[in-house]
């Protein structure tokens, strides 16, 4: 036996042992997830029905230890356990589970620089923790900004009174400087959050590709000829979801009507050439639900010319329907297809539907505790309008941050609490290529919902 063959033979038991060790680690973690799923009282199929981001088969792979789950699944599972059991040890259970999860990822070969499935899971875990820290820091900065604003207003009020001295002016100047510094820090945190969210979304898309391909997530040693290898580039990202702007000058709603108009025009030509017989056929095949026959038209040639107007029974003048009125507004919920669609029930996904805000039911809303959605406008629109509010089911003391981003800049950002009067938003979007709507719950209770009510764009 050659030295190369001998080396290969000696390496096989070691690789087999390493694979068996990884399988045992994943199986033990899967058993832990099975216990948590049992605490919810849900089967894997029922859990998948409640959280459409996961398939029944995918949940079973997680609980059997075949695959390790992403951060989102652990978060959703723990949230459901806490909701159904009212577990007082929920925070401790969360900390312990995520600590064990990190250890499992590292023990199965994951690294923050790797491109395999488990390494992407580790990067997703680290990124979510960093995002949570950023959210907490942003909430603290916003609170300080609000307090500074009140102090500055009080100082300005005192400055208008008699006897204003140097000390008051100096205090006002100090407050203004601090407010400016906080605003810059706030902007930098928002920028960092945007970069981090983009990276996390990229990791999620790559993970979705790998899971669809049936990857187990384990590293395959480079050079074995049996797999992708630890250093192979990740698979290409799937193409993004289609938008409704492949023809910017013709919105989706109008494109669908074009075949009907062409058919109507053709029918009118046939009617003029053949005495209108074809019109009855076309009308009957186009939704004539009241079963009324088209009045017959005589095709006998006239013996004497006449200049009398056509009788009401002649269908030639009504063959082509009147053109539909030109649209000037489109709903971001119903008419436009967003660029980034996340399954409902997952992190950063909006739910479209009715919601009660400030004791009033709104039928058309996009709501979530934490979500974002982007639409491509193609510089075709002039105005964005919407109303923002917080659901009545949101816990007291919770705060929702609403953000409108136009291209690369934040155009509007504000916070609201349960019971606040709905806030109307109107922005000039002339020349804007993309618009992004965001809501962010400050305390991450996953029970407070911010809602964009009837978001609309107009030309």
Automatic annotation (TrEMBL):
<keyword id="KW-0812">Transmembrane</keyword>
<protein>
    <submittedName>
        <fullName>NPCBM/NEW2 domain-containing protein</fullName>
    </submittedName>
</protein>
<dbReference type="Pfam" id="PF08305">
    <property type="entry name" value="NPCBM"/>
</dbReference>
<feature type="compositionally biased region" description="Low complexity">
    <location>
        <begin position="314"/>
        <end position="327"/>
    </location>
</feature>
<feature type="region of interest" description="Disordered">
    <location>
        <begin position="1"/>
        <end position="21"/>
    </location>
</feature>
<feature type="transmembrane region" description="Helical">
    <location>
        <begin position="260"/>
        <end position="284"/>
    </location>
</feature>
<feature type="region of interest" description="Disordered">
    <location>
        <begin position="216"/>
        <end position="254"/>
    </location>
</feature>
<feature type="compositionally biased region" description="Low complexity">
    <location>
        <begin position="243"/>
        <end position="252"/>
    </location>
</feature>
<dbReference type="InterPro" id="IPR038637">
    <property type="entry name" value="NPCBM_sf"/>
</dbReference>
<feature type="compositionally biased region" description="Pro residues">
    <location>
        <begin position="233"/>
        <end position="242"/>
    </location>
</feature>
<feature type="region of interest" description="Disordered">
    <location>
        <begin position="285"/>
        <end position="327"/>
    </location>
</feature>
<dbReference type="InterPro" id="IPR013222">
    <property type="entry name" value="Glyco_hyd_98_carb-bd"/>
</dbReference>
<keyword id="KW-1133">Transmembrane helix</keyword>
<feature type="compositionally biased region" description="Low complexity">
    <location>
        <begin position="285"/>
        <end position="306"/>
    </location>
</feature>
<dbReference type="InterPro" id="IPR008979">
    <property type="entry name" value="Galactose-bd-like_sf"/>
</dbReference>
<keyword id="KW-0472">Membrane</keyword>
<feature type="domain" description="Glycosyl hydrolase family 98 putative carbohydrate-binding module">
    <location>
        <begin position="325"/>
        <end position="459"/>
    </location>
</feature>
């Amino acid at each position: 036996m050659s030295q190369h063959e001998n080396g290969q033979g000696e390496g096989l038991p070691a690789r087999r042992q390493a694979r068996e060790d990884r399988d045992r680690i994943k199986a033990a973690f899967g058993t832990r997830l099975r216990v948590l799923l049992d605490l919810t009282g849900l089967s894997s199929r029922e859990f998948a029905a409640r959280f459409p981001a996961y398939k029944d088969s995918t949940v079973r792979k997680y609980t059997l230890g075949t695959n390790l789950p992403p951060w989102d699944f652990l978060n959703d599972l723990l949230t459901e356990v806490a909701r159904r059991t009212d577990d007082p040890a929920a925070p401790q259970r969360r900390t312990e589970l995520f600590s064990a999860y990190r250890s499992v990822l590292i023990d199965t070969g994951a690294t923050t620089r790797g491109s395999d499935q488990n390494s992407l899971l580790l990067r997703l875990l680290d990124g979510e923790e960093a995002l949570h820290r950023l959210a907490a820091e942003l909430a603290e900065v916003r609170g300080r900004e609000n307090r500074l604003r009140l102090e500055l207003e009080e100082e300005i009020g005192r400055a208008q009174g008699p006897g204003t001295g140097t000390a008051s002016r100096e205090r006002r100047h100090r407050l203004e400087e601090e407010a400016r510094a906080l605003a810059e820090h706030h902007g930098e945190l928002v920028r960092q959050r945007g970069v981090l969210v983009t990276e996390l979304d990229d990791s999620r898309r790559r993970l979705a590709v790998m899971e669809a391909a049936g990857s187990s997530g384990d590293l395959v040693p480079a050079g074995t000829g049996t797999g992708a290898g630890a250093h192979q580039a990740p698979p290409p990202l799937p193409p993004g979801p289609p938008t409704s702007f492949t023809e910017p000058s013709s919105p989706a709603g109008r494109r669908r009507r074009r075949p009907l108009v062409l058919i109507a025009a053709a029918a009118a030509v046939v009617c003029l050439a053949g005495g209108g017989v074809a019109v009855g056929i076309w009308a009957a095949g186009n939704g004539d639900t009241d079963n009324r026959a088209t009045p017959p038209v005589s095709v006998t040639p006239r013996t004497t010319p006449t200049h009398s107007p056509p009788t009401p029974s002649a269908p030639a003048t009504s063959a082509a329907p009147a053109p539909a009125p030109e649209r000037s507004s489109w709903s971001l919920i119903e008419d436009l297809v967003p660029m980034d669609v996340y399954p409902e029930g997952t992190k950063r996904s909006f739910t479209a539907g009715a919601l009660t805000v400030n004791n009033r039911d709104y039928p058309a809303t996009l709501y979530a505790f934490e979500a974002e959605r982007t639409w491509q406008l193609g510089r075709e629109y002039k105005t964005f309008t919407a109303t923002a509010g917080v659901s009545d089911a949101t816990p007291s003391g919770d705060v929702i941050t609403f953000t409108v981003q136009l291209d690369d800049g934040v155009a509007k950002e504000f916070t609201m609490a349960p019971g606040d009067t709905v806030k109307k938003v109107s922005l000039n979007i002339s020349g804007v290529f993309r618009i992004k709507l965001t809501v962010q719950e400050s305390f991450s209770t996953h029970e407070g919902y911010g809602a964009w009510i009837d978001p609309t764009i107009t030309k």
